[in-house]
Amino acid sequence: MRLKNHKSDFIDQSEALSFIFNNKSYKGYKGDTLASALIANDVLFFARSFKYGRKRGLMGSGVEEPNALVSLEIGGRYTPNLKATEVMLYDGLSAVSSSNPNSIDFRALIKPLHRFMPAGFYYKTFIKQKVWAMVEDSLRSIAGFSKAPTEKDEDVYDHIFHHTEVLVVGGGVAGITAALEVLNNSKTTRVILVDERAHLGGELFNEFQSDDTAISWHHDNLSKLLEFKNVANSRLKIFSRSTAYAWYDHNYIEVLQTNATGESLISGVTQAARKVLHKIRAKEVILATGAHERPMLFETNDLANIMLSQSVRRYLNEFGVISGKDVVLYGNNDSIYSTAIDIKNNAINCKVIDIRPSGGESETVLKAKKLGIEVLQGYAVLKAHGTNLVKGIEISSVELQGKKWRLTGPSKRLNCDLLASSGGFNPVVHLDCHCGAKTFFDEDSQAFLPQKVRKNRQVCGSISAIGFWKDVVIDAKNKAQLILLSLGEIKKSTQDSMSKNYLDYYNASQFFVPIEILNRPKVFIDMQNDVTTLDVALAIREGYRSIEHIKRYTAMGFGTDQGKTGNINGIAVAAQFLDVPLSEVGTTTFRPAYTGVDFGAMAGREVGGFFDPQRYTTIHDSHLESGAEFEVVGQWYRPWYYPKSGEDIHQAVNRECLAVRTSLGMMDASTLGKIDVQGKDSREFLSRVYTNAWMKLAPGSCRYGLMCNEKGMIIDDGVSTCINDNHFIMTTTTGGAASVYSALEMWLQTEWSDLDVHLSSVTDQFATVAVVGPNARNLMKVLCHDIDFERDNFKFMQWRPGTVCGVQARVMRISFSGELAYEINIEANYGRYIWDEVALAGKPWNITPYGTESMHVLRAEKGYIIVGQDTDGSMTPMDVNMKWILAKDKPFSYIGRRSFSISALNSDDRFQLVGLLTKDAHVVLPEGSHIINNKGGSIGYVTSSYFSPILRRSIAMAQLKGGLSKMTEIVLVKIVQEKQGLKEIPCEVSRSVFYDIEGEKVDGNE
Amino acid sequence: MFLIVCPYCKESRDQNEFSPAGEAFIARPQNPEELSDDEWSDYVFYRTNHKGDHWEQWVHTNGCRKYFLVKRSTISHEILEVAAFGEVTSENPS
Fold first, then answer.
1. Tens digits of per-residue pLDDT, B2-37?
2. Which residue ranges make up each domain of chain B?
3. Could you tell me which of A844, A785, A778 has the C-alpha nearest to residue A809?
4. Which of A16, A43, A143, A808 is deepest in the core (most CB within 10 A)?
5. In the prediction, which pLDDT does A505 show?
């Protein structure tokens, strides 16, 4: 209900807003959260829990809320699993529970079985019994929260980068004070202040009812902040409704901001980004993140209207709403008295149950008693009564015996309709721990606190267990002074002292509740995942000791709330069952993200097409006009095949391959990586990085080279051309260009800085047109008149400079098909022109453009490997039967050479490259198929496999264990055929050269 | 996400401009053929995986493409020093 005479700074009662929740209409006011508006409308059930489907109400009031998960809007604006406590109300809002509390739920129907479903139930029942696959779908449809979105997100999200001297996280008393202290004491320091709530002030608003100085302090300091903000070139940025959710190395912090217009952007009218991801680099960070309250533990503590004390207080003070008329406050520290005073002052009935036998006679306690609030000291709540909604509680007197609480008296019953509990406070240390900082357990405050000293970071306020706001002001000023000192803005820091009893607010003198209570059923630790104290006990009985293991076994803290209210209690419960001090149990690891982050916000504007560059050769337009199909190779769009109308890939490849073998083909080879190597030690350099000899390669010649790494494994291959003694052009595989270039640079820069060698990537600078086939020479004679193409004057593996169709060119006689072939290299911008000229001049020989698929077939027919397809980074030159390319007498021990003599690389049992000929010439083995032994185990696999049009049979290359000594043997290859299912195909092991074994074709017809 | 000062560009730039290139001061042996298999494996495979201040190689991939040396704490990831090759060596690491 909403209190009639309550005056709130946040709620604007002149502006009513209507909204829909679970298909019913309600009214709220501007300034409400969805949660506060629903309390005002007496809606108490928000959702169901994950495992048992129990009906749950609100527990918290902010990011810590475990229960009240809702999905907002529909279609392209649908957002699942938001916390109702964080959704600001707007007119026309429409939300549904993530799991509807008002409809029939299978999980709730089997309630009597819940006691047989403890932690590990699903694993033990289904996975261990190997029936998981049968039940997975149905179980997943029952469990869980909201459905995933199905439509494209209509909203826009932004990323903004910031650099700042000081980042202050948290806009409560501590954050405001620290930010102002820095701004006041420096003329240049830039400050960013981020706060997750809609209004700066944090928990201070709770003091407004009883403390006028709090009101004036807030007013004064906020005005001062605004003075800094509302000037040109302001040094101050303030982001509200913004959560710092991750702290990465070197003070890089990510902040997610829900924009002012926020969720209220109306469909179709996009005004601004819905959320903004701020990426902040800060020199210094001040953490003023505050603390979360933890609940007390007792049986059925998950009923609706059992809430956190501070949250009840906040709903009352900030929003003027409360969900009960007969309130019980229960806890172990003075903060429950403060809540009770505020409730009593609003003329609502309340009692306080304090587990501490002598609750101290602090000012707050005395004040509560003076107001006539009934106080029971030395009592514990054993159980909450009620079905779904709390109706009463069972309490019993307790006593501290030694270090343990014991129940002492008979239990009695009290009626209430709202129970607010406080088991102390958990400092929000999450962010501080993201980069590996540790926490320590502080006995005085009974809390895990951030480690004391850390570079470029200070903590202030209740994150370090300082609770009274006036002490927080002093603490924050002190810490800001240290930051200024670290920045060099001041020479000496001023440190004031806090009041003597500054720790009292936190005096949750004992963490534990009597173990008799923990041994009851349905004492929930993690509300969202339905983890109870008995689950923790079970985990410990089954042998788990580390809190990290207990967490994973029970799923404690795995929900969207990440255990903000439950985890520390879980740790305390584990400590109690293990009978060790809490400090010995420690915390689980805090990792980003602190709270849920929208995928849309992470993506920002980078949606739609991929960011990966798309590379086209200068001939690309011609390929498009020819109707080529493309494949992507190392970002390049390469023609895959050129189908004529009605042709499929097989028919096209068949035609292209036969054209090359019988007359003439042409290919765009521009994408091959090209590295220009210059300097007087270029030869020496090539000798060091390739396995073969380079010292005698004459200008005008080319040579194939195989490149290995130090482990002796093949990493690349290609042809290098000697332009002159100090100048070579190395080609690499299309996909390997960048990594090879990088590896070569590394050798030059880190090991061989004495070599006079300079590398430049020139891949993009040249276009290459390959003219391939028995008629290639005839065509070249037409195209170019200043090169002598006669067979004995321009030999295989030579190159000549010349003029092709009026363009300066380097013509190389190299072949990747075994046919007579020339590669015309021209300056890249002439690519299209030369391509068209070649196509025109080649008509008499029916010149046929061919793509990568035919190139693969042609090279496989000749047994040429493709690095990365026939090798996989674990193949030596010996494994691919290329011992011939290993120079024996080079003076320098080239890269990889020493590894070749390691015994493991010379075993006969290694995978070795062989050919496979299927017994049935028409069966083409799928690449990747396994070769099996007589027991069905794998002894190798197919790396390349095609139907060879010229041989009219299937050919394959494969890695086979000890394959080189298995020539002519028959092996079985297991394949899956569409209709027949699994089949074993007999194949003969052969050399991997299938066509023109003697190499007679390379000179052409003459 | 580190900020790294490239000793050649002399600017503090984001980590995603750079690539790590392994432990520093692993010199390629002068005489590989004379080494035992164990000694050679030491060079090829074994690294110290040091906890604490550690010299390593980085390359300014999306920048000047120069390799350089970085002294980084493997605990806090703080970068304590950067240097061009030759400015520090394994004999006189600062």
1. 999 999 999 999 999 999 999 999 999 999 999 999
2. 3-83
3. A785
4. A43
5. 62
Q: Is the domain of A194 the same as that of A245?
A: yes
The residue ranges of DSSP E strands in chain B, in sequence order, are: 3-6, 11-14, 19-23, 53-59, 67-73, 79-83
**Other CB atoms within 10 Å distance of the CB of residue A520:** 17
Is residue A645 domain-resident?
no
Contact A903 B37 (CB under 8 A): yes
Compute φ and ψ for A195, nearest 5 degrees.
Answer: -145, 140
Kindly state whether residues A525 and A487 are assigned to the same domain. Answer: no
Give the Cα-Cα-Cα angle A410, A412, A413 (nearest 5 degrees): 160
**What stretches in chain A show pLDDT beneath 50?**
262, 267-268
Among the listed residues A154, A156, A35, the one whose alpha carbon sits nearest the alpha carbon of residue A89: A35
Q: Which of B2, B65, B85 sits opposite A750 (nearest CB)?
A: B85
Does A498 map to a domain? yes
The CA distances from residue A9 to A64, A174, A180, A193, in Å, are 23, 21, 23, 22
Phi, psi dihedrals of residue A780, rounded to the nearest 5°: -60, -35
pTM as predicted: 0.88
Q: Is A593 helix (H, G, I), strand (E, B) or coil?
A: coil
Task: Confirm or reject contact between A250 and chain B (CB < 8 A).
Answer: yes
- For the domain made up of B3-83, give the CATH fold: Folate-binding fold (3.30.2270)
Is residue A710 within 8 Å of residue B44, measured between CB atoms?
yes
Distances (CA, A) of A938 to A286, A932, A934, A961: 59, 4, 10, 9
- Do A678 and A814 belong together in one domain? yes
On the 0-12 / 13-18 / 19+ scale of CB atoms within 10 A, A408 is middle
* Domain endpoint, select from A850, A873, A898: A850
Phi, psi of A86 (to 5 degrees): -110, -5
Q: Tell me, yes or no, whether A487 and A529 share the same domain.
A: no
Residue closest to A531 by CA, chosen among A505, A556, A552, A501: A556
pLDDT at residue A136, as a whole number:
86
Question: Domain of A18: which CATH number?
Answer: 3.10.20.440
* Structural domain harbouring A966: 907-996
Tens of pLDDT, residue by residue over A608-659, are: 888 889 999 999 999 999 999 999 998 999 999 999 999 999 999 999 999 9
Residues A577 and A495 placed together within one structural domain of the fold: no
For B6-42, b/e burial (b = at least 16 CB within 10 A) is: bbeeeeebbbebbeebeebebeebeebeebeeeebee
CATH code, domain carrying A533: 1.10.10.1100
Per residue, the 3-state secondary structure of A835-891, as one string, reads HHHHHHHCHHHCCEECCHHHHHHHHHHCCCCCCCCCCCCCCCCCCCCCHHHCCCCCC
The Cα–Cα gap between A471 and A500 comes to 10
Same domain? A253 vs A313: no
CA-to-CA distance for A185 and A41, rounded, in angstroms? 48
Task: List CB contacts (< 8 A) between B77 and chain A.
Answer: 249-250, 435
Helices (H) and strands (E) in chain A, counts: 25, 48
Which of A161, A249, A758, A874 is the mutation pick for testing B, counting most B CBs within 10 A?
Answer: A249
Residue A893 touches partner B, C-beta closer than 8 Å: yes
d(CA A240, CA A222): 13
Residue B30 sits at the chain A interface (C-beta within 8 Å): no
Q: Are residues A239 and A274 in the same domain?
A: yes
Whether B44 and A711 lie within 8 Å, measured CB to CB: yes
Q: Does B33 touch chain A (CB under 8 A)?
A: yes
Phi, psi of A385 (to 5 degrees): -95, 155
- Rg (C-alpha) for chain B, rounded Å, is 15
ipTM above 0.90?
Answer: yes
Determine the pLDDT at residue A474.
96
Of A250, A711, A893, the CB nearest to B1: A250
Look up residue A786 and give its two tokens: 């200043």
User: Is A742 in Cβ contact with B59 (below 8 Å)?
Assistant: yes
List of residues 6+ apart from A752 with CB closer than 8 A: A685, A688
